[in-house]
Automatic annotation (TrEMBL):
<protein>
    <submittedName>
        <fullName>Branched-chain amino acid ABC transporter permease</fullName>
    </submittedName>
</protein>
<dbReference type="InterPro" id="IPR043428">
    <property type="entry name" value="LivM-like"/>
</dbReference>
<keyword id="KW-0812">Transmembrane</keyword>
<feature type="transmembrane region" description="Helical">
    <location>
        <begin position="259"/>
        <end position="287"/>
    </location>
</feature>
<feature type="transmembrane region" description="Helical">
    <location>
        <begin position="113"/>
        <end position="131"/>
    </location>
</feature>
<feature type="transmembrane region" description="Helical">
    <location>
        <begin position="171"/>
        <end position="195"/>
    </location>
</feature>
<feature type="transmembrane region" description="Helical">
    <location>
        <begin position="88"/>
        <end position="106"/>
    </location>
</feature>
<keyword id="KW-0472">Membrane</keyword>
<dbReference type="InterPro" id="IPR001851">
    <property type="entry name" value="ABC_transp_permease"/>
</dbReference>
<keyword id="KW-1133">Transmembrane helix</keyword>
<feature type="transmembrane region" description="Helical">
    <location>
        <begin position="299"/>
        <end position="321"/>
    </location>
</feature>
<keyword id="KW-1003">Cell membrane</keyword>
<feature type="transmembrane region" description="Helical">
    <location>
        <begin position="225"/>
        <end position="247"/>
    </location>
</feature>
<feature type="transmembrane region" description="Helical">
    <location>
        <begin position="12"/>
        <end position="34"/>
    </location>
</feature>
<dbReference type="Pfam" id="PF02653">
    <property type="entry name" value="BPD_transp_2"/>
</dbReference>
Length: 339
């Protein structure tokens, strides 16, 4: 029997993932549960792209949510001020994420380590401050004044994907869920293709030893911009989908708790791996649901679970699964069927 290549294996797993997610609405979950699953599908899409920069290429960027915010605001602003269909805003959202990502890549080209952390975080926090301090009256509705970006309140009433008219009220949540699944599957397929391509090998070489990679002819600056561009494009697209699905978009997505929550998903799953971000997101989704009725203990619970995970599985869930697989003794089967 022919053995599947790593690329074929991951493509097959992506197909299984897609089919599994598509089947979820058929199980009849409540609208609340389906909404929670939709949210975590979108977070998985974001973390999958962040993993390309942080885990695969080894660039310590922690300002990734700025790309997500750029896409979300592009969709929301176009809906508010131009009344565009949200479907038409998604390409613009992707380009907005790409623009911020390239800016972030250019500003960190000559920086390494902690300096990249500080610069990327500074860019995200600057964007946050620009939004929350936007209080000037830009438009007026009856007696209420609204700022251009919505300020700390964010933006709403910019439209949706039209599932209410197309499918009926009861099917809105299912329609939104499938849009989120499409964003995750598309981003995952791209991530798989990149990781198993020569570009992926170049990114991993940069991560493992940048000096050696440069000595072997890899143009580090060029590949750094490429990985930022790819991640920015699909993260911006996911931000646009998030804005359309949730129906409101504000600066809360740039706040530190959200950043740490998504970073934890990557760390728990296993940075630098294909499936680590998705497994980490799934794990923390269960944790989040478990603490739903214990809001005051939520942050403490996350901290304890992360500490346990880091001690028990320092290389994440995927790394733990690989070590477990290697530890299982397998008998050598001879050609004649004898052991």
């Amino acid at each position: 029997m022919k053995t599947l290549s790593p690329l074929q294996r991951d493509d097959l797993l992506c197909l299984v993932l897609a089919l599994g997610l598509i089947a979820i609405p058929l199980l009849g979950p409540s609208n609340y549960l389906l909404g929670q699953i939709t949210l975590f599908v979108l977070w998985a899409a974001v973390v999958t792209q962040w993993n390309l920069v942080f885990g695969v290429a080894g660039i310590l960027s922690i300002g990734h949510l700025a790309l997500f915010a750029a896409g979300g605001y592009a969709t929301a602003l176009l809906g508010v001020y131009f009344d565009l269909s949200l479907w038409l805003t998604l390409p613009v959202a992707a380009l907005a994420g790409l623009a911020i990502s390239l800016f972030m890549g250019l500003t960190t080209l000559r920086l390494r380590g902690a300096y990249v952390v500080v610069m990327t975080l500074a860019i995200a926090m600057t964007l946050y401050q620009i939004i929350v301090t936007d209080v000037a009256c830009f438009r007026q509705s009856q007696t209420v004044c609204y700022s251009f970006s919505g300020g700390a309140r964010g933006l709403s009433r910019y439209g949706d994907f039209g599932f209410r008219e197309l499918l009926g009220y009861k099917w809105i949540a299912i329609g939104n869920f499938y849009v989120a699944v499409a964003a995750l599957v598309l981003g995952t397929l791209v991530a798989i293709a990149i990781i198993h391509s020569p570009y992926g090998k170049a990114f991993q070489a940069m991560r493992d030893n940048e000096v050696a990679a440069s000595a072997r002819g890899i143009e580090v600056h060029k590949y750094q911009l490429i990985v930022f561009a790819v991640a920015g494009l699909f993260t911006g697209l996911t931000g646009g989908v998030y804005a359309g699905v949730i129906g409101t978009f504000g600066p809360q997505v740039l706040e530190l708790p959200t950043l740490l929550f998504l970073l934890s998903m990557m760390v728990v799953g296993g940075p630098g791996t294909v499936w680590g971000p998705i497994l980490g997101t799934a794990a923390l989704a269960f944790v989040d649901e478990g603490f739903r009725d214990l809001a005051e203990w939520r942050n403490t619970g996350y901290a304890v679970i992360l500490i346990i995970m880091m001690l028990a599985l320092p290389d994440g869930i995927v790394g733990g699964m690989k070590r477990l697989a290697k530890s299982i003794p397998l008998g050598n089967v001879r050609a004649g069927g004898e052991q």
